[in-house]
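Dear H.,

Thanks for agreeing to be a second pair of eyes. The structure we're designing against is below in token form, covering all 329 positions.
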């Protein structure tokens, strides 16, 4: 069965926030906004395509004028294009709704100059009456919680306790490949001396230090480190981190596997796996910076792009795993 997907004009995403405080009108336009908001709230990961009317070679996705607002066709085109420009996107872009919502709130700071221009006497450029009202700006400050709720903190805390206990009982560690590098950076960083609430990195390191020969199985997707994380979605068992974190992390996993000449499902003693990793990967730039350290877009930017000193330190120290010595490159 084909996955459900949504289409929306860029201005409609802004309108959802602008109208959120006073509610949606009973008009067809208001009902459309409410349906869109309800669908996103029901499943924030639903594919959402931003469409608008343009005259160039993106016109294949033109939605037509049916959902234009009354301020005029030129205004409608300019407003949609202005929003896409701020977001750094093109007409027809499809992404999980939660990312488009987050991107909107991060990049479009005000309705002024987008939904209206202060030309009240103009026929063509009068704009929306709510432009500059502060309604969008106020809703933006409150964030997307009413539309895309965050994982409850209490759930994260409880999961931290139960997952850590379960982890220490495990005979084999299930770890996604790039988390081996995250563990190295964490171990040599300022928080590496004890557990943190956000994840189970410390617990994995601690278990390996206690038993360097504990088997590690290279796992595809979220692993034993992930359950307490606010960016982990338990019902779908996926990572929902911002900036397309899951996609970025999948590439990092594959890059690590390629460097190690291994595959998902392979099992190796932890000390041997780290010896192999530290021989093959001497800098986070190789994996987290994709080799050249160039952040090609918002979605492909992340930590360790230029090389993290913490990884270098962990590598030189053998991550303080008993018996692990690594030759300098």
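And this is the sequence the design step returned. I haven't edited it by hand at all.
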């Amino acid at each position: 069965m084909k996955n459900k997907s949504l289409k929306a004009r860029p201005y409609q995403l802004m309108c959802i926030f602008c109208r959120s405080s006073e509610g949606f009108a009973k008009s067809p336009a208001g009902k459309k906004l409410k349906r869109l908001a309800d669908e996103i709230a029901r499943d924030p990961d639903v594919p959402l395509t931003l469409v608008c009317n343009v005259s160039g070679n993106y016109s294949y996705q033109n939605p037509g004028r049916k959902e234009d607002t009354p301020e005029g066709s030129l205004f409608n085109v300019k407003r949609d294009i202005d929003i896409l420009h701020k977001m750094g996107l093109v007409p027809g872009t499809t992404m999980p709704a939660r990312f488009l919502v987050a991107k909107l709130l991060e990049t479009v700071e005000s309705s002024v100059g987008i939904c209206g221009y202060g030309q009240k006497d103009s026929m063509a450029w009068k704009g929306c009456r709510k432009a500059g009202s502060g309604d969008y700006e106020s809703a933006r400050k409150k964030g997307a919680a009413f539309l895309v709720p965050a994982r409850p903190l209490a759930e994260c805390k409880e999961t931290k306790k139960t997952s850590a206990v379960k982890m220490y009982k495990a005979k084999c560690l299930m770890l996604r490949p790039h988390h081996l590098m995250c563990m190295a950076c964490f171990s040599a960083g300022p928080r590496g001396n004890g557990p943190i609430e956000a994840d189970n990195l410390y617990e994995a390191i601690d278990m390996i230090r206690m038993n360097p020969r504990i088997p590690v199985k290279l796992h595809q997707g979220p692993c034993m480190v992930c359950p307490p994380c606010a960016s982990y979605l338990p019902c779908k068992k996926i990572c929902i981190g911002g900036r397309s974190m899951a996609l970025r992390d999948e590439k990092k996993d594959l890059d690590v596997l390629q460097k190690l000449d291994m595959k998902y499902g392979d099992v190796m003693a932890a000390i041997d796996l780290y010896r192999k990793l530290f021989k093959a990967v001497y800098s986070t730039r190789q994996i987290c910076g994709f080799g050249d350290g160039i952040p090609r877009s918002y979605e492909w930017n992340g930590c360790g792009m230029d090389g993290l000193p913490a990884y270098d330190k962990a590598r030189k120290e053998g991550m303080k795993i008993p018996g692990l010595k690594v030759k300098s490159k």
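Two observations from my side: The mean pLDDT is 94. Residues 153-168 form the longest helix (16 residues).

Warmly,
E.
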